């Protein structure tokens, strides 16, 4: 798999990224978790190192799936996630955004899960 460097950060990722939204949200009923973990791990085996998720996919379930699938290879991949959406306590997205610092540490967020697989954040400039 060919690689690319993102911006001036030196962060190197595969030319082909893997968008994970449809694995738990958006395109019909989600498939089984173990099947989706297997698909993500197969992508890694094929050389994919860039995976994209968001807390709003599910909500939260997609980040949890991605975190679980990639935890054994966390040092070999890059996970891009989007957060800051206003999500009600019952798990429904409401209008607006909420980027307060405590949002990225929600207990239900994969970034704060026991695996810690998404606990680091990185800001990348593409200038």
Produce the secondary structure layout.
Elements: E1 3-6, E2 11-14, E3 17-19, H1 33-45, E4 50-54, H2 61-70, E5 78-82, E6 85-87, E7 93-97
Parallel strand pairs: 3-4, 4-5
Antiparallel strand pairs: 1-2, 6-7
Structure in words:
With 127 residues, the protein is α/β, with parallel strands linked by helices. The chain has one domain: TIM Barrel (Alpha-Beta Barrel), CATH 3.20.20. 18% of the residues lie in helices and 23% in strands. Strand 1 and strand 2 form a beta hairpin. The C terminus is likely disordered.
Short précis:
The chain has helices at residues 33-45, 61-70, and strands spanning 3-6, 11-14, 17-19, 50-54, 78-82, 85-87, 93-97. By secondary structure, it is of the alpha/beta class.
Strand tally is 7
CATH class: Alpha Beta
- What is the helix tally? 2
The biggest sheet amounts to: 3 strands, parallel
Mean pLDDT, to the nearest integer, reads 79
Write out the CATH superfamily name: NADP-dependent oxidoreductase domain
Q: Pairing-aware structural class of the strands and helices? A: alpha/beta
Unreliable spans are: 107-127
Biggest sheet strand order reads: 3-4-5
General form? globular
The second-level CATH architecture is Alpha-Beta Barrel
Q: From the alpha carbons, calculate the radius of gyration and give it in angstroms.
A: 15 Å
Alpha-carbon distance between the termini?
A: 25 Å
Helical content stands at: 10-25%
Strand content: 15-25%
Using brief descriptors, characterize the structure shown.
disordered C terminus, 2 helices, two-stranded antiparallel sheet, TIM Barrel, alpha/beta, three-stranded parallel sheet, 127 residues, globular
């Amino acid at each position: 798999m060919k690689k690319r460097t993102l911006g001036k950060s030196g962060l190197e990722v595969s030319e082909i990224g893997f968008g994970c939204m449809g694995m738990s949200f958006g395109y019909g009923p989600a498939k089984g978790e173990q099947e989706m973990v297997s698909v993500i791990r197969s992508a890694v085996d094929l050389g994919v190192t860039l995976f994209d998720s968001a807390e709003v996919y599910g909500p939260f379930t997609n980040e949890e799936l991605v975190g679980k699938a990639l935890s054994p290879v966390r040092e070999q991949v890059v996970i891009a996630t989007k957060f800051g959406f206003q999500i009600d306590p019952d798990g429904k997205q409401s209008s607006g955004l909420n980027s307060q610092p405590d949002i990225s540490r929600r207990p239900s967020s994969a970034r704060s899960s026991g695996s810690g697989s998404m606990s680091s954040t990185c800001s990348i400039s593409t200038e």
